[in-house]
Amino acid sequence: MKARRDGTTVVLGKDGHALYDQSGYGRKTEGGLTLSPEEALYLVLKKKITVIDETFESLITEFSSRSGFMRRFLVYRDMRERGYVILPGPQDFRVFRRGERPGTGRTNYLIRVLSERDLITFRDLSDEVASAVHMRKQFVLAAVDDEGELTYYDVKADVLKESGAAPDIPPVTAIRAGNSVITQDVAAFPDPLWFGTKLDKTRLMLSPMETLYLLERGLLTIDGDANGAAIREDIPKEDAEWKEKYQVYAYLRNLGHVPRTAYKFGHHFRVYSGEKKHSELLAHAIPADASMPMSVISRSVRLSHSVRKKMLFACAEQNGIEFIEFARIKL
């Protein structure tokens, strides 16, 4: 089929309607079929159409002057090669279920295309995920590295369920040890609660997050700092992320989960549910308006998968916590 370029689109005559009817290419008009740059270039590459006075090389030179075009084209080509019908969408693309096309099925995925260096702004991402959920679609990030390799991530808002009642702990006393405290009321913390680090059979060291949590609940008295004013003032001096970390820590504890440090995994918390022996989640606390390079998220997801845990970024808002889960998927 012969086509002509019209600015950033390619137009076929009415014979192009067959491409739409059979394979879901383009957008039908009364005069023919209008193709997006990605669709047109792919069809030229596959030798299904020719464009008057143009070659594959001239088209890719022209189209790639548009920001992000090559990344979008690589994702478009990959989806088509996998047997999906893919069309321009409210993000970058909408993808039909395999074997379905316009008129005979519905879209299943909404895909946003990013480079390995693009910043993810979590508040914007949250809005896109919510929009996809409203439309009953699965939101997917397609990350394209500098060598054109593609990685797909399923992104969703994760709602954590209660994992039992919040811990019932009697009041305890402690002495201060830096920004931690040491208590001899070991019996107040039975093993299932997983509080603190034992120094010996009679002494338990509580971390800064555990200390703040017990102070906020009125369950801890520190010798020489009964209301905890001094340690509350000092903890932020050593930990610039303390506010978001504490908000997430308290939220998890109040749901009955057990958050412990995940420093060895490069994140804030590993999270246990109930009395399970192994943590199921990694949670990283961030302000809701935070931005993070896609490369950092990629490393986090790969590590979490290697240790068989979910990777959650916990966005701390004034009115609560929103958990955004990233998981690598094969489409």
From TrEMBL:
Record domain tRNA intron endonuclease catalytic: where: 69-152, 244-320
Keywords: Lyase
Organism encoding this protein: Methanogenium organophilum
UniProt name for this protein: tRNA-intron lyase
A GO BP annotation: tRNA splicing, via endonucleolytic cleavage and ligation
Cellular compartments per GO CC: cytoplasm
The keyword Lyase belongs to this UniProt entry's keyword annotation: yes
Gene name of the encoded protein: endA
EC main group: lyase
Residue ranges occupied by any tRNA intron endonuclease N-terminal domain in the UniProt entry: 1-53, 193-223
E.C. designation(s): 4.6.1.16
A GO molecular function held by the record: tRNA-intron lyase activity
Record keyword Lyase present: yes
